[in-house]
Structure formats: structure tokens, C-alpha cells
Design goal:
The protein is built from 13 helices and no strands. With about 280 residues, it is mostly helical. Among the domains are: about 80 residues; about 80 residues, Orthogonal Bundle (Non-ribosomal Peptide Synthetase Peptidyl Carrier Protein, Chain A). Helix 6 packs antiparallel against helix 7. The longest helix has about 35 residues. The chain is elongated. The relative contact order is 0.06.
């Protein structure tokens, strides 16, 4: 049986227990592949900090929030768990082991900032997966964060070579997000992207600060269109001239050099010839 190593003073526990009404209850953990075991574990530890309790009480509470495969696992190992530290080690080994690494990497690589989702939500989500995979290299973490964030934010961040840590990138991304939100460019715009880049990206917009450059390039585009139209018109004229340069051909006898109304052969003879030809 686990030993109760927590606070034993009933008076102190009752005083701190009043904080429990302000703490959100953790979600049930089933042990499915789409669940994040570290996130659930952090919620349990948050309750432990807010409401001091012994190991026995904490294990009882945590066990009550395990369902499905996770509950079956707990029923098998419950009698062998001596304290909370051992529970954490065994829980991580069972639900956050190396056999799950391919799942976490897929989560990271497919992560994209959705409409209405904040930078902090994306960054924290990725950070939890990095912890599961024990990824500590900031270069790797930053690369995946930039890939997951909205393009208008990640483009600006890529230009700032001074950013070297994950926390710095998150902090700057948060600032950019606030600026975009302030000017109503939140989910669909590309803040800071040059007009040339913006025009090459479907659905991108050009910011007001780039309007002068866009107008210059727009004028150049109009000139190119006008020149193309002139070339097409010249081609049509050449085709007409080419048709006119061909010799006249009589529709009656088929000979060149005269029109039908100038044909020396009688129309009746031509009609008969045609009739004979059909036979």
C-alpha cells in the first residue's frame, strides 16, 4: 500500500482545500493515441499544488479520472505503486514511451495554426510534444514552430536572425499576432510580405505600406498587356493579308484567276458535270 507522505495537519489541509473550488477538474484519460498524456499529468500536478494532499489521496484522485485502457492498466499496477513519484514514472513509461514516438512526430509535422487559434496555443501544444520526444534542440523546435504558425507571422519571424531560442520566437510571434489583430489582419493577411511575394501566394493581400510599390508594378503589368494586345492585332492583320494574297478561285469550275460570275463555262454544264461526278 502507498504511504501517505503529504501534509498531515487537518487544520492546514482544510484551509488550503478551500482552493479546490477554483481549480478546474481534469478530463478523464483513456490512453488513446489522440490524447496527450503529459497534458493530463500536468493537470493532476496542478491540483496537487493547489490542494496539498498525501500520496494516497493523490493516487486515489488520479485513479478516479482514468477510464478505458488507462483504467485497466491502473487496476493491474495499483497495488505495486508505493508513491506518486513511482506513479508518474510508470504512467510515462506506459503512455509516453518510445513506442509512441512516431505518433508524436506525426502530430508535430501536421500541426497548423487554425482560424481563431492563438500563437500561445500552438506553441504550448508543440512544446508538450517536444517534451514527450525529449527534443531540446532549439533549431529543431523553432523550425517546426515556424512551419505550424500562420504564414504571415512565420515570414516576418524568418527575417529576424537575432532570434535564437524557442521562447524568443514565441514572444515575437505573440507581438506580431497582436499587431495583426489590432489592424484587422488576423487570420487571412500576410503582414510584412513584399508585394511580389504576396502576389505569388494565392489568397494573400498587400498591406497599405506596400501600395506604392504595387501601383508601380501594376502599371508595368498594364504596359505588358497593351503590348500583347497590339501583337495579337498585328497577327490578325497578317492573316487577313495572307488570305487576300492567294489567287482567286472560281466556285463553278474550280479554276483560279476569275470569280464565279466571270466563269466562261455555262452553269448548266457545270451542274451536269457535278451530277456525273456524283455517279
Amino acid at each position: 500500500m502507498p504511504k501517505d507522505t503529504g501534509v498531515t495537519s487537518n487544520t492546514m489541509f482544510k484551509t488550503d482545500a478551500s482552493l479546490s473550488k477554483f481549480l478546474a477538474k481534469p478530463k478523464h484519460f483513456k490512453g488513446d493515441e489522440d490524447e496527450n498524456p503529459l497534458r493530463w499529468l500536468k493537470r493532476i500536478n496542478r491540483i496537487r499544488k493547489g490542494v496539498p494532499m498525501g500520496d494516497l489521496q493523490c493516487l486515489t484522485m488520479a485513479g478516479s479520472y482514468l477510464t478505458g485502457a488507462a483504467e485497466s492498466w491502473w487496476e493491474m499496477v495499483e497495488d505495486d505503486v508505493a508513491d506518486w513519484a513511482q506513479f508518474e514514472r510508470m504512467f510515462r513509461a506506459r503512455f509516453a514511451g518510445k513506442d509512441k514516438h512516431h505518433i508524436w512526430w506525426h502530430k508535430i509535422e501536421s500541426r497548423q495554426q487554425m482560424a481563431g487559434e492563438t500563437v500561445d496555443e500552438v506553441a504550448n501544444d508543440l512544446k508538450e510534444y517536444f517534451e514527450l520526444l525529449e527534443v531540446v534542440d532549439d533549431g529543431i523546435r523553432i523550425r517546426h514552430l515556424l512551419k505550424a504558425l500562420r504564414e504571415s507571422i512565420s515570414y516576418e519571424l524568418e527575417q529576424r536572425a537575432t532570434l535564437s531560442t524557442y521562447e524568443e520566437v514565441v514572444r515575437e510571434a505573440r507581438k506580431l499576432e497582436m499587431v495583426q489583430s489590432k489592424y484587422g489582419r488576423g487570420d487571412t493577411s500576410s503582414l510584412g510580405i513584399s508585394s511580389t511575394v504576396a502576389r505569388n501566394q494565392v489568397g494573400s493581400e498587400i498591406s497599405p505600406s506596400e501600395s506604392a510599390s504595387a501601383n508601380v508594378q501594376s502599371g508595368s503589368l498594364s504596359s505588358q498587356i497593351s503590348a500583347l494586345a497590339n501583337e495579337i492585332q498585328a497577327l490578325k492583320i497578317n492573316m487577313v493579308d495572307a488570305r487576300r494574297s492567294r489567287g482567286l478561285r472560281c466556285w463553278n469550275c474550280g479554276a483560279e484567276g476569275h470569280k464565279r460570275d466571270q466563269c466562261p463555262k455555262p452553269v448548266q454544264a457545270i451542274d451536269q458535270g457535278k451530277d456525273n461526278g456524283r455517279h
